[in-house]
UniProtKB/TrEMBL annotation:
Reported cofactor(s): Zn(2+)
Organism, scientific name: Kribbella sindirgiensis
Membrane-topology descriptor: Multi-pass membrane protein
GO-annotated biological processes: proteolysis
A Gene Ontology term for the protein's cellular component: plasma membrane
Residue ranges of domain Peptidase M48 in the record: 74-286
Protein name: Protease HtpX homolog
Location of the protein in the cell: Cell membrane
Top-level taxonomy: Bacteria, Bacillati, Actinomycetota, Actinomycetes, Propionibacteriales
């Protein structure tokens, strides 16, 4: 699907490389486990079914978990109006529009493709941002849909579950009946390999997640032509998230990779483990883009 969103070759190549490496990693992992224990076959079938369900119903799952509700133009005319303008400007299909009645100021996009996508904003973010700032956030989320990185992240983030699931089947299935030394060696091998697989997939998906946020910032700001309003929205949201009770933030952290801004307090222990670039990095990039657009004008 071609849109007027600025293409990002860096994002496309990173999605391709990440998908290839994760696929290669898990093919090797599954092949090893099948060679070691028959129970891995059942685990692969179950995990494959779960992955298919998450991919096909990712929008419904996300809305249910965040208490989001699809709204009509009559129920949210201003929100629909903003998305209508942006979709016309970007020449892309309009996604479904949802609102989550939570105070956490945030937004996210999900769905397996642009024709089956949904953009959801919280009542908290609508209450805190003005019209231009909210439009900047919506443009950011729509760029995720246009670039199809939402679907890639949905699949990539799920694959980490496979290591633990297959390991459990291996330990409590075929290995549980064998108590000899060979079984112990196999068990330790599976545990070691599964830990390595999870760690590698975790770092790969985190790296992709950080880059895609920078790509969405740039594409969204280029579409609206106002990087400063997106920077203002980002500053407001990040500052207000710090005031949200820790209990509420912990409940939302499972969706950090999909949020406009991460639901965390303080700074991450390491940039390697973060789903988003630092606030300073994002603001610096938007500031640079603002100067570039000003020079072109």
């Amino acid at each position: 699907m071609k849109t007027r969103f600025a293409p990002d070759r860096g994002l496309s190549s990173r999605m391709l490389i990440t998908s290839f490496l994760l696929g290669l990693l898990y093919v090797g992992f599954v092949a090893l486990l099948i060679a070691l224990t028959r129970s891995a076959v059942l685990a692969v079938l179950i995990a494959g079914g779960m992955l298919f369900a998450q991919y096909w119903f990712s929008d419904r799952i996300a809305l249910f978990a965040m208490h989001g509700k699809i709204v009509t133009p009559e129920e949210a005319p201003q929100l629909h109006g903003a998305i209508d303008r942006l979709c016309a400007l970007a020449d892309m299909p309009k996604p479904r529009v949802a609102i989550a009645d939570v105070d956490l100021p945030n937004a996210f996009a999900t769905g397996r493709n642009p024709k089956n996508a949904v953009v959801c904003v919280t009542t908290g973010v609508m209450r805190r941002l003005d019209a231009d700032e909210l439009e900047g956030v919506l443009a950011h989320e729509l760029s995720h849909v246009a670039h199809r990185d939402v679907a890639v992240m949905t699949i990539a983030s799920f694959l980490g579950v496979l290591a633990g699931l297959i390991t459990r089947f291996g330990l409590y299935g075929g290995l549980g009946r064998n108590r000899d030394q060979n079984a112990a060696v196999i068990m330790l091998t599976i545990i070691g390999v599964s830990i390595a697989v999870y760690a590698i997939s975790f770092l790969l998906t985190r790296a992709l997640s950080r880059y895609r946020e920078l790509a969405a910032d740039r594409a969204g700001a280029m579409l609206t032509g106002r990087p400063s309003t997106l920077a203002s929205a980002l500053t407001k949201i990040s500052g207000d998230i710090a005031q949200i009770p820790s209990r509420d933030l912990r409940q939302a952290q499972a969706f950090n990779a999909f949020f406009f801004a991460p639901a965390i307090t303080g700074k991450s222990l390491s940039s390697l483990f973060s789903t988003h670039p630092s606030l300073e990095t994002r603001l610096d990039r938007l500031g640079t883009l603002s100067r570039e657009l000003g020079e072109q004008a």
